[in-house]
Design brief:
It is a single chain. This protein is α+β, with helices and mostly antiparallel strands and 629 residues long. The protein has 15 helices and 28 strands. The chain folds into two domains: 20-240, Beta-galactosidase, Chain A, domain 5, CATH 2.70.98; 242-625, Alpha/alpha barrel (Glycosyltransferase), CATH 1.50.10. The chain is globular. The relative contact order is 0.10.
Length: 629
């Protein structure tokens, strides 16, 4: 696996990545093969994102925010989904690469020796030091080299997941598509014409003349900056944001800089900057197994996933992002009434996600149905989320004690809910859709919640609740050790009275509950790798979960295995698995949720926050414990 090339915002410079020779793509052709997920790069503006294929087609975008209905959804339906296509009309070979230190994506179309077209895609961001972009547009810069290059642009928006019809207004280089669900404007260097449901623009890009195409949702702005200035400001924004070399994680994991930086940048792309929350992924219904039914909508904020993101951001020196997320989470907690519990899932603005429904008119990625929007997990009880929030608060307290102290009343409230509810069954971290159970991971994180609350209380001189929380924490510990560990199996299990293995037990030695070298932890690591592997590619758990059908190896669990092995002193095996995981990254160093090692194919929603979080945690552990490797 190669690292990232040094590419300028104008697209000039050295690039690395896979290359494919293809004829020009006609997105309306029903027999066109599906592209692998690693053929897509993500761009965004910290409010929404778009997936751009290696062939210059924007095949997924929801406007104006992540959880809005799609406008371009060809990723889920090749005929009904819609796209914005831009490519040479001649035969070409193609590869793409991010501009180093940014989320600006550059695609290189090689026409013939010495003749090429460079496409640079981005969503505008504000000046360095600002927190939001928000301009709902995609800018696409074109530059030819060696000779003129004929180009075709196809605009085919399909509003509301392809359910709304639209009409076109054409005025030379401007094409506007209007529907009851919104409008999109498209600009091109050349005039537009309509062909069926799409608008087409063709022309020639000549060397030394940079031209732009643009896609914008909603009404045009009253003052429209030049696309060249938007590119310059966006490039400066990302370079000004990315963590400095002396950030703890960057410093100890410097040898894996390309993977660390790309994971850092993609997690930032998954932020909703208006409130400081993070979505789990920018996509919905990418299947966890080909043609399977495990197709879920991840365009929402999971308390757990977002807390994990905040924790790795603290290791990268991004204190303001972690502070903003915790403030958002504390606001959710402080608004609870009576016996209300935190939801595991919220919309980006803190609301309740829509009811989970199936979009039966869409064929699904590679024919995998159903396509779902909304997420029923938001109605579940998942007790581990309290531990993830308070664990993040303790880490942040070391860097910003005043902020955490100001939220003491909410911290106390969260801890009180744990003392009252830890002994009830829940749906667990994997969102089991069967009957609730006493999941060991949930009990573990309830213990973490009280342990962190006790430490914060002691730091803040709050003595009154400590004895009570300590007593309950010891009750939880005793229950986990007596009912969560199976002496015959020699391992921690998935749930009380459920003697099956679950990869979340790898967190027991990573949470402070037991030392990572404790014999029970070490035997659990070995049993998980033996039963759920082969490592590093782990299944999440044994048994049934109320859903049915197979799924791929869960990559977060794979990185947990690396971290657990490293912290338990099994460094050679940890590094072996680590290298195998880095090798499966696509050319853009983006990871999906799951992976099938037999077919070497990524699976699940993409790119996935969980996986990149796991990579960063594992890199930090390896860098600390194997500094000379």
């Amino acid at each position: 696996m190669t690292g990232e090339g040094a590419v300028s915002p104008t697209g000039e410079g050295r690039t690395l990545g896979t290359t494919s020779s293809v004829a020009p793509i006609d997105a309306s052709e029903p027999g066109e093969p599906w592209l692998p997920l690693t053929d897509y790069g993500l761009i965004g503006n910290e409010k929404t994102g778009a997936l751009v294929s290696r062939h210059g087609s924007i095949d997924w975008a929801c406007f104006p925010r992540f959880d809005s209905p799609s406008v371009f959804g060809r990723l889920l339906d090749r005929q009904r989904g819609g796209s914005h296509r831009l490519a040479p009309t001649e035969h070409y070979t193609a590869h793409h690469q991010y501009v180093t230190g940014t989320n600006i994506l550059t695609t290189f179309f090689e026409i013939r020796p010495g003749v090429a077209l460079t496409l640079t895609d981005f969503m505008p961001m504000g000046p360095p030091g600002t927190s939001v972009g928000g301009d709902p547009r995609i800018v696409r810069q074109l530059r030819a080299r060696g000779a003129p290059v004929a180009v075709s642009i196809g605009a085919d928006p399909r509003f509301d997941y392809g359910r709304a019809t639209s009409t076109w207004m054409i005025e030379k280089e401007l094409a506007v598509a209007k529907s009851a669900a919104g409008q999109m404007s498209f600009t091109s260097p050349w005039p537009w014409r309509t062909e069926g449901p799409a608008a087409i623009s063709t022309g020639v890009v000549v060397p030394n003349v940079v031209v732009f195409a643009q896609v914008r949702f909603g009404d045009p702005p009253s003052v429209d900056p030049s696309p060249a200035s938007l590119l310059a400001v966006t490039d400066a924004y990302w370079r000004g944001w990315v963590s400095p070399p002396d950030a703890p994680l960057r410093r100890v994991a410097a040898r894996w800089q390309p993977w660390v930086e790309r994971s850092e940048l993609v997690l930032k792309l998954l932020s909703y900057a208006d409130v400081g929350a993070f979505v789990a992924a920018p996509t919905t219904s990418l299947p966890e197994w080909p043609s399977g039914a495990r197709n879920w909508d991840y365009r929402y904020v999971w308390i757990r996933d977002a807390a994990f993101t905040a924790q790795v951001f603290l290791l990268l020196g991004h204190i303001s992002e972690a502070r903003a997320y915790l403030g958002w989470a504390f606001d959710r907690a402080s608004s609870l009434q009576g016996d209300e519990e935190l939801r595991p899932v919220y919309t980006v603005d803190g609301g309740v996600p829509p009811a989970e429904i199936e979009l039966r008119h869409l064929e699904g990625y590679r024919g995998s149905r159903p396509v779902r929007v909304g997420n029923g997990a938001s109605d579940q009880r998942q007790l581990d989320i309290y531990g993830e929030i308070l664990d993040s608060a303790l880490i942040l307290e070391r860097l910003d004690p005043a902020f955490v102290r100001d939220h003491w009343s909410t911290i106390e409230r969260l801890a009180q809910r744990v003392t009252a509810r830890w002994a009830v069954p829940d749906s667990g971290i994997w969102e089991d859709r069967g009957d609730p159970a006493h999941h060991v991971y949930s009990k573990l994180m309830c213990w973490v919640a009280l342990d962190r609350a006790i430490q914060l209380a002691q730091k803040f001189g709050k003595r009154e609740p400590v004895d009570r929380w300590t007593r309950v924490a010891e009750e939880i510990r005793a229950a986990i050790l007596s009912r969560g560990y199976d002496d015959q199996l020699g391992t921690f299990v998935q749930a009380f009275d459920r003697p099956v293995l679950d990869a979340s037990a790898l967190r027991i030695g990573l949470s402070g509950f037991l030392p990572p070298t404790d014999p029970r932890v070490v035997s659990t690591i070995a049993a998980i790798e033996r039963t759920l592997g082969p490592g590093p590619f782990l299944q999440r758990y044994e048994g049934h979960d109320g859903i049915g059908g197979p799924e791929g190896s869960f990559l977060l669990c794979a990185f947990w295995l690396v971290e657990a092995l490293a912290r338990s002193g099994q460094m050679d095996r940890a590094l072996q698995h680590w290298r195998a995981l880095l090798d499966i990254a696509g050319p853009l160093l983006l990871f999906s949720e799951e992976f099938d090692p037999a077919s070497n194919q990524p699976l699940g929603n993409y790119p996935q926050a969980f996986t990149h979080i796991g990579l960063l945690r594992a890199a930090f552990a390896l860098g600390l414990l194997a500094p000379d490797e």
